Protein: WhiB family transcriptional regulator
Organism: Actinomycetospora termitidis
Amino acid sequence: MSSVDDTPVTLLEAEQTDRLNKALATLIKPRSAAAQVVLRYARHHELACSRVNPEWFFVNGPADPDRREKWAFAQGICASCPVRRACADWALEDNERGLWGGTTEGERDRERARRKSARRDVA
């Protein structure tokens, strides 16, 4: 078995990728165009976020003392991801909690409000 760039992939790596794809398929709505971009990429490449503890992408609200540190770390992981924008769009569309595509819940809330306001201005 080989990856897209013909680098040999071990059976363990293939199994891990398969598990990740199945997990993503259950998390992401297949009708979302942004979700399809993320899933298509994940079929052939390992997402950087899959290699770190998922707790870094989720905090226990503003009271979490490690919130800023966790999200700064997670945003660094997302910064170089080629599907970052699609991941953020999916989270924006589906009102996801946590940090997705380098965006925080607050940033996505503000973007939703901006889009809603823009739609009202057009109408």
